[in-house]
Amino acid sequence: MTLNNAIHFFEKLVSETPNKSEIKVYEKFLHILNRLKSRTFSEQEMLSIEAELEFLYLESKPKNRKKHMKKALHEFETYLKDTYSLISKGYYSSLGMALGSTFGLLFGLVVLSHFERNLGVLLGSIFGMVLGMVVGRNLDAKAVAEGRAL
């Protein structure tokens, strides 16, 4: 499936679907495909991307189309990240917040336990989330500057 065919396919799905959560998945796919279309790839790289789109079986008719498309979107984003180091917007920020809150929770339990336990956990989670968000935003800005963000 070529990029243009995939874009037309998802535009058709957006116009046909009344479900807002499905439309969000389709629009995310459209955003990624349009950004890929505007980038310059070699012939071999473009064939590889089109083969991956074909491998996702986007035009199949599954029972739960939304679940199938979410899984396909995740697989496609993983493929782009692993193969071409391309990430979606806000990738590092969300990863940093998740990891920061997890490690902040542990920090709150272990180090800040001299406060009331709930207060230590709360302070640790907030501190970890803020720190993770700051680090994630810096990494996102670096990825945008390097041209790796979609």
Q: How are helices and strands ordered from N to C?
A: HHHHHH
The helicity comes to over 70%
Low-confidence stretches: none
Mean pLDDT across residues: 89
The total count of strands amounts to: 0
Which structural class matches the secondary elements? Answer: mainly alpha
Question: What characterizes the major β-sheet?
Answer: none
Shape from CA axes? elongated
Radius of gyration: 20 Å
Content of β-strand: under 5%
What is the total domain count? Answer: 2
Plain-language structure description:
Helix 1 packs antiparallel against helix 2 and helix 2 (20-38) packs parallel to helix 4. Helix content is 77%, strand content 0%. The chain has 150 residues and is mainly alpha-helical. It has six helices and no strands. The model has no long low-confidence stretch (mean pLDDT 89).
Summarize this structure briefly.
By secondary structure, this protein is mainly α. It is built from six helices and no strands.
